[in-house]
Specification:
The complex is a heterodimer of chains A (298) and B (99). Chain A is mainly alpha-helical and 298 residues long. Helices cover 71% and strands 3% of the residues of chain A. In chain A, helix 1 (4-32) runs antiparallel to helix 2, helix 2 packs across helix 3 and helix 5 (147-166) packs antiparallel against helix 7. In chain B, helix 1 (2-20) runs antiparallel to helix 5 (81-95) and helix 2 (25-44) packs antiparallel against helix 3. The chains are: A mainly alpha (298), B mainly alpha (99).
Chain lengths: 298, 99
């Protein structure tokens, strides 16, 4: 146990790396957010814009928050995985092994043998989406309630889908649009584009609807408690008593449950869409053909 | 005249947002059916509760999609589209030299 003191220092540093970005986000939120009376449903703040030739590039609250959450997740991963031993001894390593095993099982079940290398990607999407949604519990602007962030992820998934379809051959990719008959080609093209759009809107809509409903109910409870307890003297009369309790229960559903469920759904759909467009038999046939051609040339 | 035009834009957006939220009917009926069937399945085979519940949650979240489309459309019509249309109108008026 000669390393123990060094490990403790590393542990402490990594825990600081996990917590510090979130604290930074809270501080930035407190410093920059304008004071608002009542309930406001607003989008992400634009901190500053970087001038670009065609369009200016805005750096928004949701971007900054998602970077900070990424750093925080990186810290968590490093904390869980540093100083591993061949046989699991610490709780930390057990947890890390559990997460990795579960992710690999999930990917294997949904995507098959060929795509088993996708486990880190799926794990990353799952963790980023879930932590982004859960970050609203800290009071910071959750990046998942910005359409652009999720649209970015969905476009990434769309590129992957197209890439793995093209791996089966360009002819196969073009031909897959004319299935089952050539008359349906426009609908197939629309359906192809609809995949990322629907993934984006599903995730965004669920998170935003939760926050809109929470905001409406919080506003309603404030008015209701001012009606009921308004006759009490002084500050007690102004204090919204009815706001205690019920919003917390709603937040447990809308922020915690719905956020985690949507993260899971997003990763499931990613897996199904990527592996669904890919035909393994055609891919292997094409690969074998290429190999035999190369051997003939040689 | 400009006030009337802006009023018509806002009115149309509000009506459109209200109509878009009719989409909530579909997922309501669908999820109700799904939950009813899940209750039946659990009643018939109580030991399969775990897998039925997890499938039910995923299915419900997927069935919600159409309702969420309506909600997002309503949100866009409430907060994004009116400003955009009014800007387009004012720009067109400025370009034609009316304003």
């Amino acid at each position: 146990m000669a390393h123990s003191s060094r490990f403790k220092i590393t542990d402490a540093l990594l825990i600081v790396m996990m917590i510090l970005p979130l604290l930074t986000a809270i501080v930035i939120k407190i410093l920059t957010n304008p004071e608002s009376e009542g309930i406001a449903i607003s989008g992400a703040l634009v901190y500053f814009t970087i001038p670009m030739p065609k369009w200016d590039l805005p750096i928004t609250e949701s971007q900054v928050n998602s970077w900070l959450i990424m750093i925080s997740i990186l810290g968590l991963c490093l904390y869980l995985t540093h100083g591993l031993s061949p046989k699991a001894e610490t709780k930390r390593q057990h947890l890390a092994e559990y997460i990795v095993t579960k992710t690999e099982e999930l990917v294997h079940e949904n995507m098959g043998e060929f795509f088993s290398g996708f486990a880190p990607f799926i794990g990353a999407i799952l963790a980023l989406s879930a932590f982004s949604s859960l970050s609203s519990l800290l009071g910071i602007f959750p990046p998942t309630s910005d359409l652009n962030v999720i649209a970015g992820w969905a476009i990434l998934v769309f590129i992957l889908i197209t890439y793995y379809k093209l791996k089966c051959g360009f002819g196969y990719y073009i031909k897959s649009f004319t299935e089952p008959i050539a008359l349906l080609t426009p609908f197939n093209i629309i359906g192809e584009i609809a995949t990322p759009v629907s993934m984006t809107f599903r995730h965004y809509g669920n998170i935003v609807s939760g926050s809109v409903i929470s905001a409406l109910i919080a506003a309603g409870l404030r008015i209701l408690s001012s009606w009921i307890f308004g006759w009490l003297p002084g500050a007690i009369g102004e204090f919204p008593f009815l706001r205690i309790g019920l919003p917390a229960i709603l937040s447990a559903y809308f922020d915690v449950f719905s956020g985690c469920l949507q993260a899971f759904i997003f990763s499931i759909l990613t897996m199904i869409n990527i592996s669904g467009g890919f035909d393994f038999d055609i891919y292997t046939a094409r690969k074998n053909k290429k190999l035999s051609k190369k051997q003939k040339v040689n | 005249m400009l006030e009337l035009a802006i009023g018509i834009i806002l009115c149309g957006c509000a009506i459109g947002a209200g109509l878009a939220l009719i989409a909530g009917i579909g997922p309501g009926i669908g999820e109700g059916n799904a939950v009813a069937k899940a209750c039946e399945a659990i009643g018939r085979q109580p030991e399969s509760k775990g897998s039925v519940m997890s499938t039910l949650f995923i299915g419900c979240a997927l069935a919600e999609t159409t309702g969420v489309y309506g909600f997002v459309t309503g949100l866009l019509l409430m907060f994004v589209v009116p400003r955009m249309l009014v800007n387009i109108l004012i720009n067109a008026l400025v370009a034609n030299g009316v304003l």
